[in-house]
Amino acid sequence: MSPVIARQRATEKASVLAEAMPWLLRFRGATVVVKYGGHAMVDDELQRTFARDITFMRLAGLRPVVVHGGGPQISDMLQRLEIPSEFVRGYRVTTPEALDVVRMVLTGQVQRQVVAHINSHGPFAVGVSGEDAGLFTATRAVIDVDGEHIDVGAVGAIASVDCTLIESLLDNGMIPVISSLASGDDGQTF
Prior knowledge:
- The protein is an alpha/beta fold.
- The protein has one domain: 3-Layer(aba) Sandwich (Carbamate kinase).
- It is 44% helix and 24% strand.
- It has a four-stranded parallel β-sheet with strand order 1-2-10-5, with helices on both faces.
- Helix 2 crosses helix 4.
- The mean pLDDT is 93.
C-alpha cells in the first residue's frame, strides 16, 4: 500500500472515530441489544464485519448483547433433510419435527459461527440459548392477518425475560450471543 493511500485511510478512520466519540462517551457502560438476522449471515464478509463491529463496541465500553436468528439456514437444513417447510402468509409453520431442526441449526450451527467470528478478535463471546437459565419465557404465538387466525405451530411470543444470566456475563466482560429459542410454562419450546 502506498504511503498516500495509507495516510488517506488513516485520515478516514480518524474522521469516523471523531464523529463516533460523543456517542461512545454518551453510551459507555450501556447495554446494547443487537438483532442479527439470518439474511445478514449469508455473506462471509458481512459476518466478519459484524463480528469486528460488535468487538469494537465491547472494547469501546459498551455492553453488546447479540440475539440472532437463522431463517435462511433453517430453511436450507429443512430442505437438505427433506422435511417439509410450510409458510402461511409469510410466517413459517413450525412443526415438532421442524423445531428439532430449528434448535440444531440455531444453537449448533449459526450460534457457533457467530461466536467463532467474534472470538477471532479475542475471547469475548459466549453462546446462550433463550431456553437456558429461564432467560426467555414464551407463550404460543397468536397470529392474525387481516382478521384471519394463522396457526404457526411451535412459534412463541416472548412473555418474560430474566436477565440474571446475561447481566452476569456482561459484568464479566463477555458478549452474550443468544439464539432466539424460548421455553413455555409447560416445557414446550418455541
